[in-house]
Design a protein that fits this description.
Order of helices and strands: EEHHHHHHEHEHEHEEE
Distance between the termini: 20 Å
Radius of gyration: 18 Å
Oligomer: single chain
Shape: globular
Number of helices: 9
CATH class of the largest domain: Alpha Beta
Helix content: 40-55%
Largest sheet: 6 strands, parallel
Structural class: alpha/beta
CATH superfamily of the largest domain: HAD superfamily/HAD-like
CATH topology of the largest domain: Rossmann fold
Strand order of the largest sheet: 4-3-2-5-6-7
Number of domains: 2
CATH architecture of the largest domain: 3-Layer(aba) Sandwich
């Protein structure tokens, strides 16, 4: 089934929407886990470290090893923690730059994004993963650099929580578009609800094998970006 829509900008979730959740929770998490303690000692991550201590409820004088263990516990249950995502983002960006890790995209995503961009469609990203990790994720796609197709990047630091309608209002304002002319693509039902509450258009990605597959989503549902006929 094809969904036909008109929007001024399409905003993409990543995990479960453009890319396999299992790849992120597997390869990338495995890369970050042993590197957390070293990263926590860096001056540029001092604020994220302090926020992680507050969020996890461990002692204020916790060692880097203690904080790293607390963050690994969050990772074990895939908690969408902003300080964790900030720290992970720095680790992953360095891993991408060193060629030690690569990203992953569903086969339909790169050609569809390139076609939309060629047709003049504006594209942005809104993910719980930090902006620092979003750039290299798209830049190091196996199908070639996709970062040049994206004009703006949003995370829970610069936009707010993805289940909060106010975050989508903030993004629309930052992009200079009316909410009704913005389209959000995500695989998460609560994100669909929040975006629609802010007046956005939504399309839910129901991809086989992903965490929210088979959910009763609000609004249109597709299984691939190829099922979206998008015009401006």
């Amino acid at each position: 089934m094809t969904v036909t829509l008109s929007a001024d900008i399409v905003v993409l979730d990543i995990e479960g929407t453009t890319s396999e959740a299992g790849f992120i929770l597997g390869d990338l998490y495995d890369y970050a886990r042993p590197r957390l303690e070293e990263a926590l000692g860096r001056p540029e991550l001092r604020e994220a470290r302090a926020a992680a201590i507050v969020e996890t409820g461990i002692a204020a004088d916790a060692t880097d090893a203690d904080v790293a263990d607390a963050l690994r516990a969050l990772m074990a249950t895939d908690v969408k923690s902003t300080p964790l995502k900030t720290i992970q983002g720095v680790i992953w960006a360095e891993g991408f730059a060193a060629g030690e890790i690569t990203s992953q995209f569903f086969d339909d995503v790169p050609p569809r994004l390139r076609a939309w961009a060629a047709a003049g469609q504006r594209i942005a990203v809104y993910s719980s993963g930090s902006v620092a990790s979003q750039h290299p994720w798209f830049r190091h796609a196996p199908q070639g650099d996709l970062s040049t197709l994206v004009e703006a990047w949003f995370d829970t630091v610069n936009a707010g929580g993805k289940k909060d309608a106010a975050s989508y209002a903030k993004i629309a304002e930052a992009l200079g578009v009316e909410p009704a002319r913005a389209l959000f693509l995500t695989d998460h039902p609560e994100e669909v609800t929040a975006a629609r509450a802010a007046g956005w258009q939504t399309v839910a990605l129901d991809r086989a094998g992903e965490p929210w597959a088979g959910t009763a989503f609000e609004g249109p549902v597709v299984h691939s970006l190829d099922e979206i006929d998008l015009t401006r």
